[in-house]
Amino acid sequence: MSETKSRMMRVFSFGTMTRNGSYSSLQGMSNLATSAPITATDLKQKEKLVVENGREGGPSFTQMISFVLVLLASTPVIFGIAQRAVGVNIESNDLSMHSKDSHSICEWGDESCIMGKELFERHMALSRITEDPGIINRPYLSVASAHAARQVQAWMEDAGMTSSINIVGNVVGRYEADPSTSNPKTIVLGSHFDSVNDAGKFDGVYGVLAAISVVKVLKQRGQRLPFAVEVAAFDDEEGNSSFGTTNTGAKAFMGEYSTKEAAEQLLEQYAGLEDAFRKQQINYGLDSKRSGIVQGLMKSAGGSLDDVAAFVELHIEQGPILEAEGRPIGIVDAINGQTRMQVRYFGESGHAGTVPMTMRKDALGASAEAVSEIERIGNSNDGLVATVGTLNIVHASSNVVPGEVMFTVDVRAPTDEVRLDAVNRIVEYLESVRDRRGLELQITKTHEAPAVPMNPEIRGALATAISEEGLEDSPDSVRILSSGAGHDAMIVGNKIPSAMLFLRCAGGISHNPAEWLSPHDATVGARVVLKYLENLKAV
Amino acid sequence: MSETKSRMMRVFSFGTMTRNGSYSSLQGMSNLATSAPITATDLKQKEKLVVENGREGGPSFTQMISFVLVLLASTPVIFGIAQRAVGVNIESNDLSMHSKDSHSICEWGDESCIMGKELFERHMALSRITEDPGIINRPYLSVASAHAARQVQAWMEDAGMTSSINIVGNVVGRYEADPSTSNPKTIVLGSHFDSVNDAGKFDGVYGVLAAISVVKVLKQRGQRLPFAVEVAAFDDEEGNSSFGTTNTGAKAFMGEYSTKEAAEQLLEQYAGLEDAFRKQQINYGLDSKRSGIVQGLMKSAGGSLDDVAAFVELHIEQGPILEAEGRPIGIVDAINGQTRMQVRYFGESGHAGTVPMTMRKDALGASAEAVSEIERIGNSNDGLVATVGTLNIVHASSNVVPGEVMFTVDVRAPTDEVRLDAVNRIVEYLESVRDRRGLELQITKTHEAPAVPMNPEIRGALATAISEEGLEDSPDSVRILSSGAGHDAMIVGNKIPSAMLFLRCAGGISHNPAEWLSPHDATVGARVVLKYLENLKAV
Ligand SMILES: [Zn+2]
Ligand SMILES: [Zn+2]
Questions:
Q1: What gap in Å lies between CA A224 and CA A226, rounded to an integer?
Q2: Above 0.90 for ipTM, yes or no?
Q3: Structural class in CATH, domain B337-450
Q4: Tell me: the pLDDT tens digits for B388-399?
């Protein structure tokens, strides 16, 4: 039993905490690690251990296995066996990455390897950590999510960072400043590591892994900067879960749940969330009572953010512009504001053969006019986009004139002025169609988010780095893009000076297995961030 | 057992056959009827009898009960009990209608009663014969359908007709010509008695019941005409079944299955149909081997149609024109031809936030343009209608630019020339949108039916009758409409001079519980047909 216990602690042995509340009760046990090989019989014993520790409402068998997986994450020999038990497919030649010796796959160990071959291969390795074999799917608070968090944490440690995982699933690593710096500030790099269902290999993950590779280069050099560097791997950016939450990781990082009231409100607002946190707490052997969960949420905030000077997020573009223009990298000027609406036209259904055209109140005819006008309005201003993504005819039949149609409208623009003007024009048009055709109209605004402008000073410094790396002729010629999608930088950027770099991705395709960032372009992003950090004298 | 048997035969005791192949093996047993009351215990015995007669693959319990119901259709006392057993709700004050004494509800017995109060109340009674309590649903070859057929047959007998039911479900009654006429011709009146799911009370049924009421008036008068009158109640006009058949009744009447090859082909083409026929045969105690079913189908044809001079169908308009113009009745000039197409646009899906408007290949944008143009083309010619009734975005999401859209197009017109011209213009436009937007396009014609013009001579005679009944100033002022929906007259009209009368219905609503034909207008249709028959000297 003692050997089992010692191994159980092995995984919680990483470093000490700085910002984000981790499982501090387990700290100080790092010296219990063992290197003895584990057999399948041992695995069975471990399952038993976890089951015995289970409580009413505790974890499922799969979650138990997941815990065992996590326990064994640094033990390559047994890892393959455990993975097969939950259908995770990680090929044997990736196993070495799961140990703290993962840099051994990169024998020559130079900087281009770390920010190139190794960085790219880590994407492939992480892509195999999934809930559903055959596709990439890492929902929030899933087994795969916990597993991926542990993998990310191992890589942070490998890069010379101290690290922690907190209850919301964020993994934060810290690379300390040059000790000669008094009151050093902190630069935070990062993105998210959760994924949509049937995802690609780069969305979010790239910003985490590239940041880790940048820090690893600093460590290899033995170089300390006049500021600390943290890498934040946020969970739940995509909102891929049954809870209905989104951006939980970034929100927690920004202290949104740092009061008891806010933490309790979060649990009350989203059904199933408390239970999922509880199971995760049990997996980690922590206090799973509500008070324990609330405490964990409060600690998930980093406390004061006063020392944080900047947040920089690397992310694939998820759009086609950079590729179309032959550029590997661009700078985001703003994360677009967004208005989402649900529109319903109510007309009169009728027989497609017997109701004359002149006597119809065709809700689809009205909607078709609206779709065309929304497209025209979207085209009327650079950077503005307007999309009808869903359209449903209620009780549709090929021989029935549509009596009711509902569709969604999604409007995004880099400035709120442009967006709100477009929304007004769309609403006016919808009403004019209603009046002209004698229908009923219902418009529901389902979401409204203001644009989040990125910090001009950081943008300037990033433009200089891009130019110095020879990727553009001058800082002024760097491509400026707005971000049509939401990102962690949208949450962080509300309080902390933030910037985003976009990397070219093939065909602009994202949220899709075909998502592709070339190894070359993956390296480009890391090089630019490294150059940016090197250029910073003090912050 | 002998009493049971004699009662079992009671229901098959009606008349002798003329045109449509009936269950002739049961003819000649009409003298076995008994009038002794039946108790619930008797009912149990009958169930037992039927169960004992069951074979492998035989009828379900519900179907057995249905058979018993059919057996008891002329025995009001037990009828309510049996109905409750299968959830059919017929109120006790309608029970008298199910006996051959149903005219007793109409105490004064004059013609306005027969074609008025009684006609209307029979609609209410038939509406309660349904597969699904609470709504009207008489699918093809269902228990409710068999029950309704027996009820219609009883009313035919009540009107002085001989009658029969054949395997496809058609009920045909015949009122013989004046015996002094040599080689009398036949005028066929009728429509269908099946219904769509969640139907109204008048679609189809009206044409059957009004025709029966006209014949009943002739019988009350003791009047014979210089031609025979048949009332055809067709089954399966609506195609409401899992088999995929439609118009089976009218097609059988026209001899479409009168050869062994055609009968066997029908059974092979539609999955489940043979089994449904078999169960019906068992219910009726007939030969349920395939050869027996094929024989039944061959007999369902009326043999030579040479003696049939005309087919006249009364039907609710199912459209809003007559009501809008304040007219109770109109004459159909043609049953519109129809083209149905399925259209698919293939563009490129993309993120609604990140793909600029100018780089999109939005399949919904293309489809919206198409829907608007199809509506304009529909409006370009009187009588032409063009409808997009279904439209589906493949993998729709509010934040994804639609990459693939499919929609249906339904084009109908009273002449083939107008329809085909509209179809050509639609296809040309679809292609121009494809080319302009750089999409892929797939057009599949799924259905094509030519227009069926109604017979001008019968139309003229009906216009005269309408005018003589004081419903229009002159024959020339009668409203002429085209029929946008298909009807039995579309099948019959291919070979036999045919005509249709449309009756005003509320709001043009049909295929809906709200379907409404006023008692006044129901009478109008019967009066016009009676006048038409009276005016015919010889045919
Ligand atoms: Zn992302
Ligand atoms: Zn009908």
A1: 7
A2: no
A3: alpha beta
A4: 999 999 989 898
